[in-house]
């Protein structure tokens, strides 16, 4: 179908669909954060309302017109990159936020609302939103729901799924499913919202969500620890988890090559000198007038005495707190500065991290003696960003993923599958699981117009 | 099909299906905790393995034989009560527990494992399991997953859904979906496990689960507070939530008629005298060597000074802690002692609880001036057990549910729909939602053999 014919079929009455066909205007809809542009779509629709999304999808469904769904375009698996013949549905003009309900600790927002906007609304009501990722200024709530975003505070708040108390989504044929009551407890039949969380847009388009907000801590502290090995780090994690319970909010790892890179990039102006094989950033939250920070120091000092850490700096001011997190932000900055690298967003059971690191090093040496591994990530939840510099990318990546799968892990811990991780899905999902996903897709989107060719 | 003919068709080879056809032996498979027995089924199958469940379901699927799925039979919505013509599939012989993985803080258990067994396994490894309900000695993990059980610590740990890091389930045709890696982060395609959590057995039978375990607190404290109104209770909740963050684990409410009943039943031997319109039990967990309990007292004393509570007792020993929780356990004991009552497991947004209580009182007085309301429950998450003594049950129940729905609430907060709440589902689920549930049911269980007639 030509774009002109399709546009003529679109419902005119009442819906501001924000149709855009100018090629220059569409330039920013060609790629997500992977920067690999797809073809220019025949049009981009940017509806203002759920009814507009519904009317647009119904027209696409009737015409059998495939649709690429876009949020903030911060994805790292190519899920939002348009394919040949697709039109684009962008939620970017649906970004309003309802008022914070301070009693229930919830807020209803449109799918195009930016994460940072939601975080700021929560904070202004004395609450906080549990998920935080580096792309907070651009990532949209809808995209974060569709990809079940994770980030650095999964230890405390779990992933995006756990923040969703209600959802509104539109099926491929325009049917609107609205469940925005936002109850903490509601077992009135199967929870359909779960289909759309982490569903990568296969089953429907999220238009609004009721989000859980949490108590805002009175204070936060963090520490940067030099640790001699992954084994030591895991013991330290267990001790902190046991001593701090849900007040332990983050446990991030940075392996030597990345830490050394950041140290050089910052000209040594970082809280601990390079030289240790692994660095850990731990963070805790303090509520009320608790002396919980003493526990933090007690555990860390004991860990030092027991040789679990060779050096520690604990923040004592907002400036020091920021300086420690700045090291973590440096991971992406440094690895991006190295040019074309190959990232692997894997997770393995915590107990298998030492085996993963050792075996990955061996296989990398075998496949490409010139290769370098730059590893950092969310150590506390088993999620490592295993970034490799290699000229033999095609040989290396499948082996890294195969290793993660063999150790009981995942080939995409938080980035999703999209277009770019499809080849590895069968390493971790059985034929029965893949067949079931296809069955659900056929039931909910019989013409397969939504994000066709993604995931499966 | 006669039972004999069906049994002859069952696969013999290798599977211990534990087929039971003796009428006396089947007596305990006729009802859940609602005590309303269904007809005697032609057989009860009690397989020992997932393969056995699969073989049995495949035979049922091929024969078009409907199946009632049973766990610990502690449900309160009749979901496990057999219907005419059904056979029963009980998971009671699949109750083994794997070892606790202390590093990952997980455990893999079979669906028939009892909650209390899981709690004890976690504790013996220095960890804890987040969901607790009164029926812990009988309720099985599989049943709790299928009904997304809640209980008293939802404020801290959320419901059963949040404890599930992996699942194995068998579809109606015997297909086994196994996803037991137990990763904290895994976005390798849509999460099929979510279908079976709170799915009430419509889409498949849970056979095993990988459960999340949490840090075991160093200490727990609770307090019993007499509060003058629901509004005061909600302010107290906000203050405790803000001061304690995730250390606030429970916030239970007991309204005067129930509290007075417990007081009489215990001959006054309870921590606070009756006389207040509402009582609240708050609980907090303390980790490490924190002085968090001081915050607890500080907030409560300030609440007393501000008139939010008229009396408070804070536990200072294990004995006092148990005495306060004993009051809460008395709620069920007392209301059961009143004879045939009508329970309503509703939830409303927190801010609407005062309106719900006031309007329910008015409508009850209008429908049955003789009626008495006995109300208690999980005030902190908006979930009230609104129990009514009335001779006009048929007139009263629909109005209570209608009111909850009108105030943006749920007609079944944690008990599920089963057979007994079906009539009220359309008050809270739209025709589009119900049609989508039917579509999923048709895709996953085309002959509708699993828990036919439940929920929908």
Automatic annotation (TrEMBL), chains A, B:
This is FAD-binding oxidoreductase. The keyword Coiled coil does not apply. Belongs to the FAD-binding oxidoreductase/transferase type 4 family. Its cofactor is FAD. It comes from the Bacteria. SUPFAM superfamilies: FAD-binding/transporter-associated domain-like (SSF56176), FAD-linked oxidases, C-terminal domain (SSF55103). Residues 37-216 form the FAD-binding PCMH-type domain. Pfam families: FAD-oxidase_C (PF02913), FAD_binding_4 (PF01565). Keywords: FAD, Flavoprotein, Oxidoreductase.
């Amino acid at each position: 179908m030509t774009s002109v014919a399709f546009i003529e079929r679109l419902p005119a009455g009442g819906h501001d669909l924000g149709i855009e066909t100018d090629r220059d205007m569409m330039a920013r809809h060609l790629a997500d954060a992977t920067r690999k542009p797809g073809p220019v779509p025949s049009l981009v629709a940017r509806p203002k309302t759920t009814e507009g999304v519904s009317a647009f999808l119904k027209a696409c469904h009737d015409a059998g017109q495939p649709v690429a769904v876009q949020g903030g375009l911060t994805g790292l698996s190519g899920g939002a990159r348009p394919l040949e013949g697709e039109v684009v549905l962008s939620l970017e003009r649906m970004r309003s936020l309802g008022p914070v309900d301070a009693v229930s600790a919830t807020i209803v927002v449109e799918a195009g609302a930016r994460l940072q906007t939601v975080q700021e609304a929560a904070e202004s009501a004395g609450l906080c939103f549990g998920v935080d990722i580096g792309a907070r200024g651009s990532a949209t709530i809808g995209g974060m729901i569709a990809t079940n975003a994770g980030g650095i505070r999964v230890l405390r708040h779990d992933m995006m799924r756990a923040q969703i108390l209600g959802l509104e989504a539109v099926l491929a044929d325009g049917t609107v499913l609205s469940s925005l009551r936002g109850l903490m407890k509601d077992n009135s039949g199967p929870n359909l919202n779960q289909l759309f969380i982490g569903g990568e847009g296969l089953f429907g388009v999220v238009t609004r969500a009721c989000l859980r907000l949490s108590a805002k801590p009175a204070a936060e502290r963090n520490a940067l620890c030099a640790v001699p090995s992954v084994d030591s780090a895991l013991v330290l994690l267990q001790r902190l988890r046991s001593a701090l319970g849900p007040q332990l909010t983050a446990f991030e790892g940075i392996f030597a090559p990345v830490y050394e890179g950041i140290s050089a990039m910052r000209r040594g102006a970082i809280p601990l000198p390079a030289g240790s094989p692994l660095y850990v950033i731990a963070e805790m939250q303090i509520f009320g007038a608790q002396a919980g920070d003493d526990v933090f120091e007690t555990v860390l000092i004991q860990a030092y005495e027991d040789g679990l850490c060779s050096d520690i700096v604990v923040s004592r001011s907002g400036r020091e707190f920021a300086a420690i997190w700045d090291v973590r932000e440096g991971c992406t900055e440094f690895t991006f500065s190295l040019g074309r690298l190959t990232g692997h967003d894997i997770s393995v059971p915590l107990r298998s991290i030492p085996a993963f690191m050792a075996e990955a090093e061996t296989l990398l040496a075998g496949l490409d003696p010139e290769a370098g591994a730059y590893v950092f990530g969310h150590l506390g939840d088993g999620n490592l960003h295993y970034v490799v510099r290699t000229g033999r990318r095609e040989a290396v990546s499948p082996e890294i993923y195969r290793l993660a799968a063999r150790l009981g892990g995942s080939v995409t811990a938080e980035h999703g599958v999209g277009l770019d991780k499809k080849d590895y899905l069968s390493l971790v999902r059985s034929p029965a699981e893949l067949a079931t996903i296809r069955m659900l897709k056929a039931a909910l989107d019989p013409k397969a117009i939504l994000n066709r060719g993604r995931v499966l």
